[in-house]
Design a protein that fits this description.
Elements: H1 2-10, H2 23-42, H3 46-51, H4 53-77, H5 82-91, H6 97-106, H7 113-140, H8 147-179, H9 187-205, H10 210-221, H11 227-251
Helix pairs in contact: 1-11, 2-6, 2-9, 2-10, 2-11, 4-5, 4-7, 5-7, 6-7, 7-8, 8-9, 8-10, 9-10, 9-11
Length: about 270
Amino acid sequence: LGELVAGVLLGASVAGIVDASNEFLHLFAEMGVVILLFEIGLETDLRKLMQVGGASAVVAVVGVALPFALGYAACRGLGLNNLIAIVAGATLTATSVGITGRVLSDLNRLQDVESRIILGAAVMDDVIGLVILAVVGRLTQGDEVTLAAIATTTGAAVGFLAGTLLIGRFVVPPLVSTFSRIDLPGTPTMLAIMLAFALAWLASIAGSAMIIGAFAAGLLLREVPQAHEIEKGVAHLGHFFVPLFFVMVGAAVDVRVLNPLDSDNHR
């Protein structure tokens, strides 16, 4: 929370020190959230996560449907047209598994049943959010929304995660074992970081979210004998990059729009 507040204070709307649109800082922030989700994956037991899959699915669906319905109804009640109401409702369905995971990790509650439900729901929310984004994008461009397009987007997001976890169980452990024979300090950690960024990139290419790829990498590497060494090494990187992500999120907030008397000047 302190990092988010620091970002708001350093952002363009207050001190003007941090520019949220700076591409260099944005790249560092993206690296930060990838490392964060990778760390969370390393601390998450996939078997225990699957045990709460049903509850996570219910939480995810309600967590998307309810904000969308309320946002849509509120906009229609204010007299806004149907398209604007749909876009506003879709905006309210967005969640941040990065922020959720960081809070649970800082509280040392990642192993709780409730935390596993939250994490599972957050990952599912990201998948559902990708589908909603694709639908809304087509609507705003005036294109027709077809079942085939929705199925393709859903299949890409779900299929990537399922395929990665399935294939990775057979590929990753032997790969880590082979490269760990290189007698150089930090070899397992560097290999792990390369895998995390590679899966994040592949997830983006496949039409899924980068953070889902990074989370999957963490889940896979949790099972290897070198997991503790990897987790320790990645934590050092996280201490530098992860706070940049939260600062950039805070810096993107324009507090001036909260002033109704001055809102017209900043539209």
